[in-house]
Amino acid sequence: MAIPIINGINYSWANISFVLFGVPITQITKISYSRKQKKENNYGAGYDPVSRGYGNNEYEASIEMYTDQWLQIIALAPNNDPLLIDPFDIPVIFSIDGQPPIKDVLRSCEFTEDPFSGSQGETKLMVTIHLLPASIDRAA
Questions:
Q1: Using CA atoms, how far apart are residues 22 and 90, in angstroms rounded to an integer?
Q2: CB proximity list for 29: less than 8 A, separation 6 or greater
Q3: For the chain, which residues make up each domain, given as ranges?
Q4: pTM of the model
Q5: I want to staple 106 with a disulfide (CB 3.0 to 4.6 A). Which of 44, 55, 133, 137 is the partner?
Q6: Is 3 a residue whose pLDDT tops 70?
Q7: Confidence category of residue 24, pLDDT binned at 50, 70, 90
């Protein structure tokens, strides 16, 4: 059974807000996160599987933001090194006026790289930062 969209409104980028280190961040332009689990068939006699094996959950995430926001994070990091920042949570909040907010939380994240890329003629400099979350709490 399909669940109707309340008031015909669907979530859009404008309905998502981010909090990083306790501060709302507005210069994030993209976020991506996922959980995957290795699953494979186990074989015995014959051609067909006799059982299924399940491996560990694996989590990955990345955020894209304006470079000046990333440089602010670097400036506040220990020894100006974002890879030394202690693990932190990232709440991703989905909200539409008149509806209770829904929140996913990326738990115990750490930055795994400190990238930069720029090209002649660009009018904005963006950076994509990969994260290593320990888990992802999805909204129910």
A1: 9
A2: 64, 65, 66, 126
A3: 16-38+51-137
A4: 0.82
A5: 133
A6: no
A7: confident
Condensed to tens digits (0 to 9), the pLDDT of residues 85-109 reads 999 999 998 888 777 888 999 999 9
- β-pairing, 23-25 with 16-20? antiparallel
Of 116, 1, 11, 14, the C-alpha closest to 65 is 116
Under a CB-based contact definition with an 8 Å cutoff, are residues 33 and 133 in contact? yes
Q: What torsion, rounded to 10 degrees, do the Cα atoms 25, 94, 65, 90 define?
A: 70
Phi, psi values for residue 49, rounded to 5°:
-65, 150
Domain covering 16-38+51-137, topology: Pnp Oxidase; Chain A (2.30.110)
Model confidence over 30-84: pLDDT tens digits? Answer: 999 999 999 999 999 999 999 999 999 999 999 999 999 999 999 989 999 999 9
Residue identified by tokens 């051609």 is 47
Report the C-alpha gap between 56 and 32 in whole angstroms.
20
- Amino acid identity of residue 19, one-letter, is V
Residue whose structure tokens are 């709490």: 137
